Amino acid sequence: MNFQTFPPYSPVSQPLIWLAEYENGEFFSEYDPETKEEHSFSDIERDKLVRFGQIGLGHRFYYEVSNGNFKIDGKMIELVYKHDDQEYALTGQQQPYRDLISYKDMEFTFNPNGQAGNGTSRIVQYNFGYKAELQDGPVHFHFQILYKIPTDGHPAYFYIKLVSDRTLDGELVIKRNGVVADTVNAPLTKNKGGEINWILQ
After folding, report:
1. Residue 116: how many CB atoms within 10 A of its CB?
2. Is 1 within a domain?
3. Tens digits of residue pLDDT in 40-81
4. What gap in Å lies between CA 194 and CA 176, rounded to an integer?
5. Geometric angle at alpha carbon 106, from 148 and 55, rounded to 5°
6. Based on C-alpha coordinates, what's the Rg of the chain?
7. Rounded Cα distance, 77 and 79, in Å
8. Per the domain annotation, does 49 fall within a domain?
9. C-alpha span between 151 and 16 (Å, rounded)
10. How many domains does the chain have?
11. What is the pLDDT of residue 117?
12. To the nearest 10°, the Cα dihedral for 181, 67, 64, 122?
């Protein structure tokens, strides 16, 4: 069994849970499928990781640790930064992308005039991805990418942050299943971050 064949449903009432797949074929999930015991994100063995992402509601969202490419319900997402005629690979580099990220955005609602303890909290968005330092030719990048999944029915999207050690007047090229899906004007100023939100169609 691998991430593509793992049952895409949460074993608890929380709709989505994080899931880590190890190189020996074992899985480590936010909640144990059998006991429902909650596991700590900090206990993920990053040196053994091959895939990481979210499952639930019939969906599988993850990225490949070996190259940083995302698989969103079977769609492969790759990113390249293009400056003049030079292309710099953001995903697909032959290095492990092990600095994974996973967290939830929460919302707490309460009546300030009501009784103590009348508030309720809920998850408004699930987030997962990674950050990486990348060297491609003469350019050094700090790269962060998160797949963000709102719970209010709005479409999921990618948050992409990029910092370069030199000024580049380029564009971000996003590929879906090996074909260019979008090209975004993305000039970078040396050592200053640029951020983009991109909705996967």
Report:
1. 6
2. no
3. 999 999 999 999 999 999 999 999 999 999 999 999 999 999
4. 22
5. 45
6. 19
7. 7
8. yes
9. 10
10. 1
11. 64
12. -70
Within 13 Å of residue 12, how many CA atoms lie on the same side as its CB? 14
At 190, list the tokens: 């040396």
Q: What pLDDT, on the 0 to 100 scale, is given for residue 2?
A: 87
Cβ–Cβ contacts within 10 Å for residue 8, how many?
Answer: 18
pTM for this structure? Answer: 0.93
Domain span including residue 186 = 17-199
142: Cβ contacts below 8 Å, ≥ 6 apart: 131, 132, 133, 134, 161, 162, 163, 193
Asked if residue 136 belongs to a domain, the reply is: yes
**Amino acid identity, residue 40?**
S
Mean of the per-residue pLDDT values of the chain = 94
Q: How far is the CA of 57 from the CAs of 2, 9, 101, 177, 187, in angstroms?
A: 18, 5, 21, 23, 38
144-156 average pLDDT score: 96
Asked if 90 and 134 count as a contact pair (C-beta separation under 8 A), the reply is yes
**Both structure tokens of 134:** 């990348």
Q: What is the pLDDT of residues 8-28, one digit of tens each?
A: 999 999 999 999 999 999 999
Is there a domain that residue 3 lies in?
Answer: no
Residue with tokens 């596991």: 39
Question: If DSSP codes are grouped into helix, strand and coil, which group holds residue 43?
Answer: helix
> Which amino acid is residue 91, in one-letter code?
T
Q: Which residue in the block uniquely carries the two structure tokens 């429902």?
A: 36
- Residue 130: strand pairing partners: 100, 145
